[in-house]
């Protein structure tokens, strides 16, 4: 069964894997917002980031990291979201909200204390 939300998140993941900021922006709503939770333990913006261009830039910056990271589409809070891992250890989990074929909201958890359940192996 086709789920527009899932397909939108998959398109976003594919754009991230290519580190293609224009493709990321194309999947994001013009008024997209992203909120990060670094828990004071890792660098993260203190304020909500707004607008497709700024959110795409943020995603590349905070999730871009190493070339040997793995990004997977997984269930996050019951909907398709993203998990980013390095050496099987989660470094980010992203919840998403969509409207039609665009992402409107990203909740990016970077706080290591909240990611332990997402580690593999």
TrEMBL record:
Positions of transmembrane segments: none
Domain of life, source organism: Bacteria
Position of the signal peptide: none
InterPro entries associated with the record: ECF_Sigma-70_Domain (IPR052704), NTF2-like_dom_sf (IPR032710)
PANTHER family registered for this protein in UniProt: ECF RNA POLYMERASE SIGMA FACTOR SIGI-RELATED, SIGMA 19 FACTOR
Protein name: Siderophore-interacting protein
Source organism of this protein record: Amycolatopsis bullii
Lineage, broadest ranks: Bacteria, Bacillati, Actinomycetota, Actinomycetes, Pseudonocardiales
């Amino acid at each position: 069964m086709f789920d527009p939300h899932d397909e939108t998140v998959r398109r976003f993941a594919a754009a991230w894997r290519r580190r293609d900021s224009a493709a990321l922006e194309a999947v994001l709503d013009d008024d997209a917002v992203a909120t990060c939770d670094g828990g004071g333990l890792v660098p993260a913006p203190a304020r909500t980031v707004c607008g497709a261009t700024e959110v795409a830039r943020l995603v590349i910056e905070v999730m871009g990291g190493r070339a040997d990271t793995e990004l997977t589409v997984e269930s996050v809070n019951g909907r398709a979201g993203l998990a980013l891992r390095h050496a099987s250890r989660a470094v980010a989990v992203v919840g998403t909200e969509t409207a039609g074929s665009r992402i409107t909201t990203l909740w990016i958890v970077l706080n290591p204390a909240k990611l332990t359940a997402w580690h593999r192996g």
